[in-house]
Design goal:
Layout lengths: L5 H28 L9 E6 L2 E3 L5 E7 L7 E5 L2 E2 L1 E7 L2 E5 L8 E8 L5 E12 L6 E5 L4 E3 L9 E8 L8 E9 L11 E2 L1 E6 L2 E10 L3 E9 L12 E7 L7 E3 L2 H4 L5 H9 L10 H8 L15 E3 L10
Parallel strand pairs: 2-9, 11-18
Antiparallel strand pairs: 1-3, 3-7, 4-5, 4-8, 6-7, 8-9, 10-12, 12-16, 13-14, 13-17, 15-16, 17-18, 19-20
Length: about 325
């Protein structure tokens, strides 16, 4: 016995099928509304700039297509997240770089944050540049050094050295040396500064003075310039001082070979008078002549090695 006509029966059979189709369509639409499967793959085409300091903080603009304005994007540089990422349009991203290692080139990855997330690696890489200026790590002599042992009071030393935190261009390093008297010195220096030449390689330079550094003087060295290979320069001048004590004052002096090896006579007497242990003043050579002229072997035009000279001192000679 049939309960329904053929048409009615066909209509009833179609209803479950229609319901199933409707359910499937509902699921698909919900999936699409949630952006599942329809999240586009970003298509980056360029980045500017492509380099910046190792400290980070470089604002980078990335151009292309299909950047996710609705859900946003993430941008990484060498696996580190960029900050302040914005998507003003589907064709532009702005991001601020994280810190990195100087000299390193890293991959830039862009991810559309919809569901599922879709990421693409930019064809260009970002290079971190050296932005750290060099610093002075050591100087020789050390600041505050007092040199009290030496063989020749007129030629104690003729160089100082400076080391930096990284390699520098020696031609960029400027070193000036100021001269002052020490408390135990008998006279002011004739020159206020000491000239010389800077040489070196890698992370160390040497200043070689044109004239020897002598006893009874304080030397203040100032280092400036000093550019590294990336062009970063010393943030501020670096200064250090050292002194050379005066020897004990003599009342007799035996002529040395170095006193007469360059020239004899007046020049030799000036050299002797300039010694810190004598008068510390070359212009006082005439006092040596006055004190020794009665010695029958004394000849002001020709001194000899080993010859003994009297060194006149006291109020009778105008000393205070």
């Amino acid at each position: 016995m049939r309960l329904f006509s053929d048409d009615k029966e066909t209509e009833l059979m179609k209803k479950p099928r229609n319901i199933a189709v409707l359910a499937i369509l509902t699921i698909v639409c919900a999936w699409m509304v949630g952006c599942g499967g329809c999240n586009p793959e970003p298509v980056p085409s360029g980045m500017s700039p492509t380099q910046g300091p190792e400290s980070g903080g470089t604002t980078v603009q990335i151009t292309g297509e299909k950047f996710d304005m609705k859900n946003g994007v993430t941008v990484t540089f060498g696996g580190k997240n960029a900050t302040s990422v914005t998507v003003p349009s589907e064709t532009q991203i702005t991001a601020v770089t994280p810190g990195g290692m100087a000299g390193e080139s890293v991959s830039v990855v862009i991810t559309n944050k919809g569901k599922p997330e879709v990421q693409v690696t930019l064809s260009q890489q970002f290079t971190y540049t050296d932005a750290t200026p060099p610093t002075v790590t050591m100087n020789e002599p050390a600041d505050g050094t007092v040199i009290s042992e030496y063989e020749d009071s007129l030629n104690v030393m003729n160089s100082v050295s400076v080391s930096f935190s990284e390699a520098v261009n020696s031609d960029s390093v400027s070193i000036s040396v100021a001269i002052a008297k020490t408390e135990d010195s008998m006279s002011e220096p004739m020159d206020a500064t000491l000239s010389g030449t800077v040489t070196g390689s890698g992370d160390a330079v040497t200043f070689t003075s044109d004239m020897p550094m002598r006893a009874g003087r304080m030397y203040t060295v100032t280092v400036s310039g000093a550019a590294d290979m990336a062009g970063n320069t010393l943030a501020s001048p670096h200064s250090f001082s050292f002194s050379v004590t005066s020897p004990e004052r003599l009342y007799k002096y035996r002529v040395q070979e170095e006193d007469i090896q360059e020239s004899n006579g007046e020049n030799a007497l000036k050299r002797i008078a300039s010694r810190p242990e004598i008068f510390d003043n070359p212009e006082m050579w005439k006092r040596l002549v006055a004190a020794n002229q009665d010695d029958y072997i004394f000849d002001r035009t020709k001194l000899s090695v080993g010859q003994m000279l009297l060194i006149p001192r006291g109020r009778a000679w105008g000393d205070k």
